[in-house]
From TrEMBL, chain B:
The protein, known as: CxxC motif-containing protein
Domain of life according to the entry: Bacteria
Pfam families tied to this protein: DUF1667
PANTHER family: DUF1667 DOMAIN-CONTAINING PROTEIN, MOLYBDOPTERIN OXIDOREDUCTASE, 4FE-4S CLUSTER-BINDING SUBUNIT
InterPro entries, per database record: CPE0013-like_sf, DUF1667
Alphabetized Gene3D superfamilies for the sequence: CPE0013-like (3.10.530.10)
Organism from which the protein derives: Megasphaera paucivorans
Length: 480, 120, 414
């Protein structure tokens, strides 16, 4: 019997798990995919938002500003790659100027620090790659690795006693006296509390738990990933001023590792789990990208991907609604989160704290002794000085064997990734944890060695090695 | 009558034309060397091919040794030869040039190692 | 970390690096070391278990491993120092080389550096094929490595995009291992590999080749389930209504090789936008004095025999450089006309005879190669069956030059 079962190990589920693990509770996380960050958490721009676009007083606004302010501390505790680069929102016309003033005002009301308008000269000095007559500068905006953030939260939760179940999809539930039985593809789990962090499936799970009526609209956003050589001079987030409908057009965002992301666009889709890149989006992103980023060239394109935003839609007005974080007396011991889309990454821990607040409304929680907010990282060989690199190799010769040439990832890091605390073992799990196979050759040089290492270290048959998602087997067997 | 062949013996890929009447082969045009002429004549009568593939190695530093047939075999026997090779295991060390299977299926061709695989 | 002094550091122990090392030794340069990132020498030849190598050089048809072994035997015979499992991570413009090995960081100060790093493959992501991104999509070299070196079979039903030689070789390899290869698709209106490979890899096994076709969509959630193939027009745009779906669990990509010059960029070497390899003079020297390049890292070759030859010519120049014999400056640039993909070398002195390498852009049953200077033809060569797949070489004697002005190479179909 669990005290709390969390449905979904994305950024929200993992943040809830980590925060709940501060208390003396038996906590489990049920994740239908084979790892964390497979869906929305692993498919976004990796931005720490400042909070100047959200309606004042909304949960989006409050959680965003809160999450932004504390992130230096979080990045340090959990060892998350993070750069508070700052953002410039550039404009050309009077209309643009009005939009920027509007955002500056919203930002001020939301408590976003440091927003100011800058002129062309200051813009050129600050962000040489940016084109624009003027801009709004947001000093608190930043970029982070969404993969490592999700992994870090989950690993920290695990370290503090939480159990993670992967490849475990919740397909039904029933209530028995004062506890729930969650029926999953891997058997039944009983629990006193259920927290719905199912993201794209949150409205489905909400209905299943007895809270129907939430309508999610699904909006796919496609991306190009550009080579690090394209991003050498991109030192800030550069966004164009929003158009009349309020959304941002295509932008170029540096990643914390030095790549550049072009996108995302936004196309409403009906069928969930359709992550296909489409010719129409790819063509439009390419041509729009070329207009606003000088290094948008075919030779720099490494790959494409897509993410799906779960937007909570008002069925009558069709407006996009605020986050739902609720507990209802009529549906006991359920904390329900629906429609957590952008700025979900920035808001993760503030949302988790509000979940706990909901639980504390009806139950006293006792602190766990020895809760450790810090987790150990896999040391990134590529980022160290030559002195430290030499020391690492002397301590562990596996640091002296480079497996992924494009990203300079060593055997030591890959082995640590294979033996990760969560026990996940897909090729993509390795990729997300240590960047192997993320470079320009896309695993052309290293995937053979990595597949072999997974096989040797975990005693797997060839047919058991998965690429990333369920049933994504790499091999059909041996040759001989 | 004539028939055309793309020679596979070397990267020149000569376009070879063979003149023939019934079973009698006449002139062969377009080859840059004698190997090409021989190839084209064989293609008319009984196409022959060599195979390069791998054989499983036990106790070797790598699991496979690359092999080749040292003389061509009839083209229609390719898959039969492959089936036979698939079931063979050799034990390391294997030296490049070593005969793994002599006179495979009685076709007068040997399966020869093309790489050295040392013992683990 | 000690910095060791070397006369020459050779980066990459594949066919180019090996040939260069042996030639350097023969020219009396002994203080050399080959730095190879793999566990064994041989480079890409280790996984090329098919034959057809060495016909020009050794007058016999060898498999890749056998060809490599000839040079590795010489490395042992001449006692040439090599370090495997050492990955070079930095080269500075003043020729300090840093490598990572299990024994620690290795740092060298070199008088000359030989760049022989070979190529990487162009990926699905680089060409931007729409669709999902499931398991089962492999570039030809990766598939070849899994099957020939790692004993791992990648699929049961395959299609192949790209009719380059590697793609066709893999079509045959997969078929021999029981994989159903349904078709090969080529976006150009003509095949990009050699006719002999179409014959022995595709026709022999009744694998159809569709030119002017490409993959326009990929379906599959975890593992590949099918691809959509369409015919393309002269601009290589898909023709609506010609789409066909091919069920398959494997797609092999053979859509081009890219010289692997990331390290070259770290030491200030300038690259040719046509070849993606270094800009070099008639001595295979790059713009950085003492840094030379040869083999696939310089231009994508189709015959390893030419790789060895190119590396040997380069090594000869490296030796001359070290003996301070002095090179006359190479200020005459050679450029390709639109009919020619690229020309190497890109700069010559005009004082010695040179051999130029290039490829035509389109196949031509009969064509004339013109070398022009100051608007006049200074060399003509007639070629039969010119193919982009086959590198062409042309002699350019110094005596034929009229001035020090730019030279152009042009191909005209007759």
């Amino acid at each position: 019997m669990y005290d709390v079962l969390i449905i979904g190990a994305g950024i929200i589920g993992s943040a809830v798990a980590r925060e709940l693990s501060r208390y003396n509770l038996k906590i489990g996380v049920l994740e239908k995919e084979l790892d964390v960050c497979v869906e929305t958490t692993g498919r976004n721009t990796g931005v720490l938002h400042a909070g100047f676009t959200y309606k004042p007083g909304s949960l989006k606004a409050q959680c965003c500003v809160e999450g932004n302010a504390e992130f230096d501390k979080i990045a340090e505790e959990l060892k998350i790659p993070f750069k508070r680069l700052g953002k410039v929102v550039v404009g050309f016309t009077d209309e643009d100027k009005q939009s920027l003033l509007k955002y500056q005002d919203i930002g001020r009301r939301n408590g976003v620090p440091g927003l100011r308008l800058i002129d062309k000269k200051e813009l050129k000095d600050m962000a040489p790659d940016a084109g624009g007559e003027f801009a709004m500068y947001s000093p608190t905006s930043g970029i982070l690795s969404p993969f490592i953030y999700n992994v870090a939260l989950a690993e920290n939760a695990k370290q503090n006693g939480v159990t993670f179940y992967f490849d475990t999809e919740v397909v039904g539930q029933s209530r028995n006296n004062n506890y729930y039985i969650l029926k999953t593809t891997k058997g039944n789990f009983s629990t006193r509390w259920v927290v719905n962090c199912a993201g794209l499936h949150s409205s489905k799970i909400s209905t299943m738990l007895g809270i129907p009526g939430y309508k999610l609209g699904f909006f796919k956003g496609e991306y190009y990933v550009l080579d690090k050589n394209a991003g050498r001079t991109l030192n800030m987030l550069i966004y164009p001023a929003p158009g009349p409908t309020g959304g941002f057009a295509t932008h170029a965002t540096p990643t914390v590792d030095g790549n550049v992301l072009i996108g995302p666009d936004s196309v409403q889709i009906d069928c969930l789990d359709n992550y296909e890149n489409t010719k129409s989006s790819m063509d439009k992103l390419f041509s729009d990208g070329r207009k606003m980023f000088k290094n948008m060239k075919r030779e720099y394109c490494i790959r494409n991907f897509s993410g799906i935003r779960p937007k909570l839609i008002d069925p009558e007005t069709k407006d996009v609604l605020d986050f739902v974080i609720e507990r209802r007396d009529t549906v006991p011991h359920v904390v329900n989160l629906v429609g957590i889309e952008s700025p979900g990454l920035t808001c993760a821990l503030p949302i988790a704290r509000r979940v706990i607040k909901c639980i504390k409304e009806v139950e006293t929680l006792y602190d766990r002794k020895n809760f450790n907010p810090c987790r150990e990282e896999i040391i990134c060989f590529a980022n160290q000085s030559r002195e430290v690199q030499q020391q690492l190799i002397e301590m562990n010769p596996d640091y002296g064997e480079i497996i992924c040439r494009c990203e300079t990832v060593t055997k030591a890091e890959i082995l640590q990734a294979i033996h990760n605390p969560l026990g996940v073992n897909t090729m993509t799990a390795i990729k997300n944890r240590v960047r192997a196979m993320m470079g320009r050759c896309q695993g052309g040089y290293c995937q053979m060695r990595i597949a072999e290492l997974i096989q040797e270290e975990l005693h797997k048959k060839e047919t058991e090695i998965m690429y990333g998602r369920k049933k994504s087997h790499m091999f059909t067997g041996k040759v001989r | 009558m004539k028939k055309n062949f793309t020679c596979i013996i070397c990267p020149n890929s000569c376009d070879i034309e063979v003149m023939f009447e019934g079973n009698a082969i006449g002139t062969v045009n377009g080859a840059s060397c004698s190997k090409g002429i021989e190839y084209a004549k064989n293609e008319m009568v009984h196409p022959m091919r060599t195979i390069t593939t791998s054989v499983f190695v036990q106790q070797g530093i790598v699991p496979l040794v690359s092999v080749k047939l040292d003389t061509p075999i009839p083209k229609e026997k390719i898959f039969e030869v492959m089936k036979f090779i698939r079931d063979i295991k050799v034990t390391a060390p294997v030296i490049s040039g070593q005969i793994i299977i002599a006179n495979i299926l009685g076709l007068k061709s040997n399966v020869v190692a093309t790489k050295t695989v040392e013992k683990v | 970390m000690n910095t060791m002094d070397k006369d020459v550091i050779i980066i990459g122990g594949g066919p180019a690096g090996l040939a260069a090392a042996v030639e350097l030794k023969k020219r009396g340069i002994h203080n050399i070391v080959i730095l190879e990132r793999e566990k064994y020498l041989g480079g890409i030849l280790r996984q090329c278990i098919h034959d057809g190598f060495g016909l020009k050089r050794f007058k016999e048809t060898l498999t890749g491993p056998e060809y490599a072994q000839r040079f590795i035997d010489d490395i042992q015979k001449f006692n040439i120092l090599y370090i495997t499992e050492a990955t070079v991570i930095e080269i500075t413009p003043d020729k300090i080389v840093t490598a990572v090995s299990r024994n620690g960081l290795l740092q060298y100060r070199a008088k000359a550096i030989v760049l022989t790093m070979g190529c990487r493959e162009r990926t699905r992501g680089a060409i931007g094929i729409p669709g999902s991104r499931p398991a089962g999509i492999y570039t030809a070299g990766v598939a070849q490595s899994f099957i020939n070196l790692h004993n791992m079979m990648i699929g049961k039903e395959a299609v192949i995009l790209g009719s380059g030689d590697i793609g066709m070789i893999m079509a045959r390899r997969l078929t021999l291992e029981g994989v159903k290869v349904k078709a090969v698709f080529e976006v150009m209106p003509y095949p990009s590999g050699l006719p002999r490979n179409i014959e022995q890899c595709l026709n022999d096994y009744n694998i159809p080749l569709y030119v002017s076709h490409t993959v326009t969509n990929i379906k599959g959630r975890g593992r590949l389930e099918s691809v959509t193939v369409a015919q393309v027009d002269e601009q290589m745009n898909a023709i609506a209504g010609t789409e066909k779906e091919y069920k398959c669990d494997t797609m092999i990509l053979s859509v081009g090789l890219i010289p692997e010059n990331e390290l070259s960029l770290t030491c200030g070497v300038n690259l040719d936008k046509h070849t993606k390899g270094a800009l070099v003079d008639e001595h295979y020297q790059t713009n950085v004095p003492g840094i030379f390049a040869a083999g696939n890292v310089l231009q994508v070759h189709d015959l390893v025999d030419f790789v060895s030859m190119e590396a040997e010519h380069m090594a000869d120049s490296v030796a001359s450089y070290l003996y301070q014999e002095g090179f006359p400056p190479s200020h005459i640039s050679i450029i390709p006309d639109d009919s020619v993909g690229y020309v190497l070398p890109q700069y010559i002195s005009g004082e010695i005879d040179v051999v130029c390498s290039f490829r035509v852009k389109k196949p031509a049953k009969k064509c004339a190669i013109y070398v022009l200077q100051d608007g006049k033809v200074i060399i003509t060569k007639k070629i039969k069956n010119a193919l982009p797949a086959k590198m062409i070489q042309i002699h350019l004697p110094a005596a034929n030059l009229n001035s020090t002005n730019e030279i152009k190479v042009k191909a005209v179909e007759l």
